[in-house]
Automatic annotation (TrEMBL):
Enzyme Commission number, as recorded: 6.3.1.2
Protein name according to UniProt: Glutamine synthetase
Positions of the GS catalytic domain: 87-340
UniProt cross-references to InterPro entries, sorted A to Z: Gln_synt_N (IPR008147), Gln_synt_N_sf (IPR036651), Gln_synth/guanido_kin_cat_dom (IPR014746), Gln_synth_cat_dom (IPR008146), Gln_synth_gly_rich_site (IPR027303), Gln_synth_N_conserv_site (IPR027302), Glutamine_Synthetase (IPR050292)
Gene3D superfamilies in the cross-refs: Glutamine synthetase, N-terminal domain (3.10.20.70), Glutamine synthetase/guanido kinase, catalytic domain (3.30.590.10)
Source organism of the structure: Rudanella paleaurantiibacter
Catalytic activity: L-glutamate + NH4(+) + ATP = L-glutamine + ADP + phosphate + H(+)
Lineage of the species this protein comes from: Bacteria, Pseudomonadati, Bacteroidota, Cytophagia, Cytophagales
Sorted UniProt keywords: ATP-binding, Cytoplasm, Ligase, Nucleotide-binding
SUPFAM superfamilies according to UniProt: Glutamine synthetase, N-terminal domain, Glutamine synthetase/guanido kinase
Domain of life per record: Bacteria
Length: 340
């Protein structure tokens, strides 16, 4: 009889940006299946999710994978429920209308490796800025250009060992900035995997005393790039359209609901969506083929395949909740399908 360590992971109730929380449950001979992970509870009064006089919140297991960093370990991504079993208001996963997994999502998660000793990105000097502006760091190699690769490579390995569908990594435009990409057939699982990957990266950072900075513009009003979480998405209509008109109709359905999307695309996005650094202005909606300055980019591969493919919403920022992002995109696309 083997003792297994189940790390129950959830999102707290902090606003405007939720944080990851977790705690360990020891069980015997766990199967590794989500249906065999028991419901659990936690003190919601310590996570901004319940008052002290009625503090119990429930953890409903939603996704399970091996924990490569622990012997006999598993990672259990959970939804937060109220004591009566209804979804907690902080539970973005419960709002996703994709029970048939018709929607596929690929998230491009950018972030900064943050040197806590100097409170700046890895590769920055203690005072001022690097001698060279951004440019040489994107997809770079070499000690003058790439900083923190040992952390990034370790993260990639543990994600793959956990069974997460990471499709790639690369150094990003700014010093100390990196990206990983995860794809899943089903919006809920795509969100699950992004959150578990974020959790693993945070835990690796602990080992090296390096923070993971998810803020969309941690270097403020400077000429250094912010961080996004571009959302690539498709459903049957997009994958089989064969028509530019279908793509125009779906893209145009996003124009009247800019505010609704921005509301769940991450805090402080006005600092990032300025119309500079490959972004569209936060209060403007646009779309275009191969246009990285648009709100929604139509990939050239979609056009070359005869208008059968996917779209990329470039507005979600690095700290956004992928559950809420997917939920809003699905709602908008489904509103357009009535017209398609």
């Amino acid at each position: 009889m083997a003792k297994c360590k189940l790390e129950y992971i959830w999102l707290d109730g902090y606003k405007p940006t939720q944080s990851l929380r977790s705690k360990t449950k020891i069980v015997t001979d766990f199967s590794g299946k989500v249906e065999d992970a028991e419901m659990w509870s936690f003190d919601g009064s310590s996570t901004e999710q319940a008052p002290g006089g009625s503090s119990d919140c429930l953890l409903k297991p939603a996704f399970v994978c091996p924990d490569p960093q622990r012997k006999n370990g598993f990672l259990v991504m959970c939804e937060v429920l109220n004591a009566d079993g209804t979804p907690h208001e902080s539970n973005g996963r419960a709002t996703i209308d994709d029970d048939d997994n018709d929607f596929w999502f690929g998230f491009e998660q950018e972030y900064f490796l943050w040197d806590v000793a100097i409170d700046k990105p890895m590769g920055f000097p203690a005072e001022g800025f690097p001698k060279r502006p951004q440019g040489p760091y994107y997809c770079s190699v070499g000690a003058m250009n790439a900083f923190g690769r040992h952390i990034v490579e370790e993260h990639l390995d543990v994600c793959l060992d956990a069974g997460l569908n990471v499709e790639g990594i690369n150094a990003e435009v700014a010093t100390g900035q990196w990206e990983f990409q995860i794809f899943a057939k089903g919006a809920k699982e795509a969100g699950d995997q992004i959150w578990v990957a974020r959790y693993l990266l945070e835990r690796i950072g602990e080992k090296y005393n390096v923070a993971i900075n998810w803020h969309c513009k941690p270097l403020g009003d400077t000429d250094w790039n912010g961080s996004g979480m571009h959302a690539n998405f498709s459903n049957t209509a997009l994958r089989t359209a064969g028509s530019k008109d279908v793509y125009d109709t779906i893209c145009q359905s996003f124009a009247p609901v800019v505010a609704e999307h921005i509301a769940v695309y991450g805090a402080d996005n006005h600092m990032r969506l300025t119309g500079k650094h490959e972004t569209q202005s936060i209060d403007t909606f646009s779309y275009g083929v191969s246009d990285r300055g648009a709100s929604i980019r139509i990939p050239i591969a979609t056009v070359e395949r005869g208008w059968k493919g996917w779209l990329e919403d470039r507005r979600p920022n690095s700290a956004a909740d992928p559950y809420k992002v997917a939920s809003r995109i699905i709602k908008t696309v489904k509103s357009a399908e009535v017209l398609v």
